[in-house]
Write the structure tokens for this entry.
Amino acid sequence: MEPTSGAAVSEQTFTPGTSSRALVELRHVDKHFGPLHVLRDVSLTVDRGEVVVVIGPSGGGKSTLCRAINRLEVIDSGEIAIDGRPLPAEGRELARLRADVGMVFQSFNLFAHKTVLQNVTLGQIKVRRKGRKAAEERARGLLDRVGVGTQADKYPAQLSGGQQQRVAIARALAMDPKIMLFDEPTSALDPEMINEVLEVMRQLARDGMTMVVVTHEMGFARSAANHVVFMADGRIVEETTPDEFFTAPRTDRARDFLSKILHH
Amino acid sequence: MFDFLQGYDVLGAFWTTVQLTLWSAIGSLLWGTALAAMRVSPVPVMRGFGTWYVNVVRNIPLTVIIIFTSLGLFQTLGVSLGAGTFTVINFRLAVLGLIAYTSAFVCEALRSGINTVPLGQVEAARALGLGFTQVLGLIVLPQAFRSVVGPLANVLIALTKNTTVAAAIGVPEAALLMREMIENEAQLILISAVFAAGFLVLTLPTGLFLGWVSRKAAVRR
Ligand SMILES: Nc1ncnc2c1ncn2[C@@H]1O[C@H](COP(=O)(O)OP(=O)(O)OP(=O)(O)O)[C@@H](O)[C@H]1O
Ligand SMILES: [Mg+2]
């Protein structure tokens, strides 16, 4: 390990292949929606195998941050690199990069006209160019793993929210992503279904998946996260361990927020 | 009572109507889909062309388009669409005109269908690494088509009736034969009734069948 010189260089540029630990790097990212400044000079590093939980008040820019990482949202300035490679512009190369970044949405977004099995094979066949048989085998394995193996031939609308979300996780995992992004994966679910989804995510974390999770589930943050990032008004206000964040938040903004979600 | 039908090939004329309808339907479905794809494409030139085409074509009377194919395309520019005899040339020109016209309506029906597909479907597809054409062809259009079977059935029924305009350039379809028979026979009301019934036989089952398909195909969300 060379301590300082390497770090100083990578402050300036992204050098492909050299930074071995960082999987996602955001540098001084800014983003506006019209007059609204939603990301203000956001810098964040997610290391390989790390689970980062992003938490904060509504409208703080958590979703935008998450979506910027696979360029569903285009940033105004700053840099984002995944595995040492800066995000390319819209096109074939970006599509290839997105295939390496799994995304799970609050509203599941399963393809409504395809069966559960087809949802999980589609990307493998059309993006990864796998054969149908291999893709189905992998899909069934993943569906079993998330506990919905028996639902393979149903359509999304026939499943409960918790089941749909687990299918969505399987769909993302089928691409063998380097990282998984979760944008409030449980906030559209009935309370009794939240845990089945969180359990799948905990298992993923234990298996070493790199994850960025926007969530207000403190139990999950405490048990699975390596870092908690507290975002408000487009800024990263605090970045620390879950224990420290929940027991001794450093900023008033975070204390205020925590008291609200603890005593609702 | 139906003696006046003697010596006229009514079935043959309706068969021509059916053929005009089928070829035009296939053609306008393809071209209409391409136009709809252009209208939602990220390329400004394509969007511009799609919008321009639909707005221009929708606002020209079909008769003008059909007569233009004959006078403009064939007689002035010599476009004969690979056919030898006048009958075949006129048939193909009429199909071309009907496609050009009907595709604008197919495009608009499809575009309204595309608008019913939630943005989340597109985002999930893009997040998987699918490109624009794949997102459109695998996710958006299949869902859009399912939600517009009803409106497309209306376009098809309108098209079936619109084929009568092909009479203007001498295509021997039902309306042309009807005009000929009305001139020759003294059975105005009966002749009209026979042809009206003929069109009902074509359009009613189509409407009922596609209504059923529409219910079957609807995407549950
Ligand atoms: N497409 C958009 N166009 C305009 N404004 C937007 C758009 N998306 C988000 N915003 C605005 O940007 C700000 C940040 O939104 P974002 O969704 O990132 O917040 P969030 O932290 O995820 O909030 P929540 O907890 O409510 O999901 C909000 O004020 C929001 O209204
Ligand atoms: Mg959000």
The pocket of adenosine-5'-triphosphate (ligand 1) is lined by residues A 33, 36, 38, 56, 58-64 (CB under 6 Å). Confidence is low (pLDDT under 50) at residues 1-18 of chain A. Chain A touches chain B through 31 residues (CB under 8 Å).
